[in-house]
Design brief:
alpha/beta; Aspartate Aminotransferase, domain 1; Aspartate Aminotransferase, domain 2; 4-stranded antiparallel sheet
Length: 394
């Protein structure tokens, strides 16, 4: 490979949330972290080069993007998703979670319902309740090892609980679903029928496994586009989360105006300089890097699958269709939440994301990040295997 996804890079001492803040978050300092969704790989070399050039310039004043910034994004989405967004649709924010919180304030009133599909990315729920709205959950159903939408429950919850906004996670974090066109259309039609706006978080959209295709929700047709907010970012794709840059597309001018007022009310205007530079460079030069990264992730997924079957058959992989986050079913171990936490953190010395964080539907599961060198992944699984064996021998 042209790019190196094998070398283990020491991230300690770099102010890394993943590696440098275990003690502050109640864990042992030497714990091996595979929790938060950033990667242990260096980003696209051209991104680093352009950021270094900007740093050496030495002036970090107020900055803004020009037409070439948008063109880099538009070209990427046209090439990979057959979607051709317009520049006037774009509002830049420092993050997708920031945008989701702004959308909640823009499109709902205190006390109104916002629908999510748990187990789902936990900041969704936090953004709803922190803004005084009512969290309404239409649980995904695990059927034959695959999560599905309960459409009857989805519509019933919308009607019965005064839902005005739906937060769609696409691809879904943490269960790894890449929604099919008919699923997206059916959810979209229900929302259109009942006057529910849709915020589609598509931050993991570049990560799909063979046989699965990410569909930008707004690309389904004008009616869907006019009722939606599409949240995108280069942060997961190119490991740029620390640069805080997201690109939010809102085709409907009225919704765009409402959203922009909510962003303005938060006191936010221009993105930081490095975010603008990093985003544009990534979309302009990151194609081959991403291709090779996805080959690495496919190899890591295959490794985990075979490792569990050979060494930890009690732990079941929910087969992912997208993302680099795996959803593992620990329920066959027969442990309580506290017992499983003790096993993973105290005995295996691993830091994962407990499924309970993603809602009650996630209890008994763990989320693990496989965007790391194979050696790191093997070490983590070996530690987990040894802890499970030791526990069973007691």
């Amino acid at each position: 490979m042209k790019y190196d996804f094998d070398t283990v890079i020491d991230r300690r001492g770099t102010k890394s949330l993943k590696y440098d803040f275990a003690k502050e978050r109640g864990r042992d300092e030497n714990i091996l972290p595979l929790w938060v969704a950033d990667m242990d790989f260096r980003t696209v070399p051209e991104v680093s080069k352009r950021l270094a050039e900007a740093a050496l310039h030495g002036i970090y004043g107020y900055s803004e993007a020009k037409e070439d910034y948008f063109e880099a994004i538009r070209s990427w989405y046209e090439k990979y998703f057959s979607w051709n967004p317009k520049e006037k649709w774009l509002i830049k924010t420092p993050g997708v979670v920031f945008a989701i919180a702004a959308a909640i304030r823009a499109f709902t009133k205190p006390g109104e319902g916002v629908l999510i599909q748990q187990p789902v990315y936990y900041p969704f729920g936090e953004a709803i309740t922190d803004n005084g709205r009512v969290l309404v959950n239409s649980s995904l159903k695990l059927k034959d090892g695959r999560y599905e939408v309960d459409f009857a429950d989805f519509e019933r919850k919308i009607v019965e609980q005064n839902v005005r906004l739906f937060l769609l996670c696409s691809p879904h974090n943490p269960v790894g679903r890449v929604w099919k066109e008919e699923e997206l259309r059916r959810m979209g039609d229900i929302c259109l029928t009942h006057g529910v706006k849709i915020v589609s978080d598509e931050i993991h959209g570049d990560f799909t496994y063979p046989g699965h295709r990410q569909i930008v929700f707004a690309s389904l047709g004008e009616a869907y586009a006019e009722n939606s907010v599409i949240c995108t970012a280069p942060s997961k794709t190119f490991n740029l989360a620390g640069l805080q840059v997201s690109n939010i597309f809102i085709p409907n001018p009225q919704l765009r105006s409402q959203f922009k007022k909510a962003v303005d009310a938060a006191g936010y205007s221009q993105l930081n300089l490095m975010g603008l530079i990093g985003c544009q460079a990534a979309y302009e030069t990151g194609e081959e890097w991403l291709k090779q990264l996805k080959e690495c992730l496919q190899g890591n997924l295959d490794f985990v699958r075979s490792y569990l079957l050979r060494n930890l058959p009690q732990i079941h992989l929910i087969e992912p269709e997208g993302t680099y986050l795996l959803w593992l079913d620990f329920r066959a171990l027969g442990m309580t939440e506290a017992q499983r936490t003790d096993l993973i953190e105290k005995k295996a010395h691993l830091w994962l994301d407990s499924g309970a964080m993603f809602g009650v539907d996630g209890e008994g599961f763990e989320r693990i990040n496989i965007a790391c060198p194979r050696a790191t992944l093997k070490q983590a699984l070996d530690q987990l295997r040894d802890a499970v064996i030791a526990e069973s021998d007691q």
